[in-house]
Amino acid sequence: MRNEKLSKLFLAIFSIILLIGVFTVLNTEYALNSLSLPQESKEVYSLFYFGATSCTFCIVPQNIENIKKLRKEFSEKYNYLTIKFVMVCMDKNIEEGLEYVKKYGEYWDEISIGNFYENELVMNNLNKANTPGVPHIIVYRDTLIRMTTPVIKSRKVVVDLLGADQIQKWIRSGYPLLRD
C-alpha cells in the first residue's frame, strides 16, 4: 500500500513538473515569436568596378574617363537610391595599384587592391559573373536588414558587364538597371 501511494505521489509530482516544463517552453516560444525587435530594412545598390594596370582596356584614356564620370552621372540618374561605389584593383603591387586607382578619381566608397584573381572581392564576385575578366562592372541590388549591424538579406545582380565595349554601351544607354 505504501509503495502504491509513493508511486501515485511520484506520478503526480512528475506530471506537475512535466506540465510546468511544457508551459515554460510554450510560453518562451510564444514570447520569442511575438518579440518585436526593431528591424530596419533598406535597399542599397553596390557598384563594383574591377580593373588592373596589366589590362590594356583598363588603362585606355577613354575607359578611364567613362569610369570617372560614372559616379556623377549614375548618382544623378538614380538620385533616389542609396549607392555605394567599390573599386577593386587587381594589381599585385600595392603602390602600382594606388597609382591606378588615382587615375580613376578619388570618389570610391571602398577600395580593394592586390592579389590579381586571388583578391577576395574578385573571387567572391567575378567568379559568379557571366564571364570573369576585366574591365568589369557589377551592380548589385542589396536588401539590408539592421538589428545591431547591417546584414545582406538578399543580393541580386542588376548589371554584369565585361569589357570596354559593354561598359561604353551601358553608359551611352543611360545606365539601365535590370528590374524584377
Plain-language structure description:
- This protein is α/β, with parallel strands linked by helices.
- 42% of the residues lie in helices and 27% in strands.
- It contains five helices and five strands; from the N terminus they run H-E-H-E-H-E-H-E-E-H.
- The chain has a five-stranded mixed beta sheet with strand order 3-2-1-4-5.
- The radius of gyration is 28 Å and the shape is elongated.
| Amount of beta strand | 25-35%
Give the tally of β-strands.
5
Mean pLDDT: 84
Low-confidence stretches: 22-37
Q: Quaternary state, please?
A: single chain
Overall structural class, as computed from helix and strand content, comes to alpha/beta
What strand order characterises the main sheet?
Answer: 3-2-1-4-5
End-to-end separation in angstroms reads 76 Å
SS element count, helices:
5
Q: Order of helices and strands, N to C?
A: HEHEHEHEEH
Write the layout of secondary structure elements.
Layout: H1 2-34, E1 40-51, H2 61-77, E2 82-89, H3 94-103, E3 110-113, H4 120-125, E4 136-146, E5 150-162, H5 164-172
Parallel strand pairs: 1-2, 2-3
Antiparallel strand pairs: 1-4, 4-5
What keywords describe this structure?
5 strands; 27% strand; alpha/beta; 5 helices; five-stranded mixed beta sheet; single chain
